[in-house]
Amino acid sequence: MKIFLASDHGGFELKKRILEYLETKCEKEIPKQVRDDKRNKEYELEDVGCVDTQSCDYPIFGRKLAEKVVANPGTRGIVVCGSGVGISIAANKVHGARCVLANSIELAHLGRLHNGANILAMGERTKFVDAPIKIVDEFLSTEEDMSERHVRRREQLDEM
Ligand code: RB5
Q: In angstroms, rounded to a whole number, what is the distance separating the alpha carbons of residues 141 and 17?
């Protein structure tokens, strides 16, 4: 699965930690003999910025990431800013993006299960109920509930 990552300066350090974690996870889960074969990687990662902690504007990166996720069905996105709020609002303005702002495993789980969230947002400067890495794991491993009522509601969201 391809995963896009983005942040502003306020979320840069957490994005870096997540990126490093996902890179490590890729290596660990690839059997030795296929370690060089890209197609066998569990995740393909692309960081779409920002590139350091210099002040920048979260709408630019939230939008850029959401456009990539929507243009590439089946991919997911992770966005981080100081609070998680600004960058999630930006992402959700892109048609087809469904971004869940989560500080707990429970919210990441429900965001995938019920809402079919294709983007996870987190706030580096905020309190977390669960460790950010665990929230990422939950978001990436939970499938959408395909019950008729959930599919119908997601379709209603996509029509807006
Ligand atoms: C940047 O200082 C901060 O406003 C931003 O990261 C975010 O919290 C906005 O919602």
A: 19
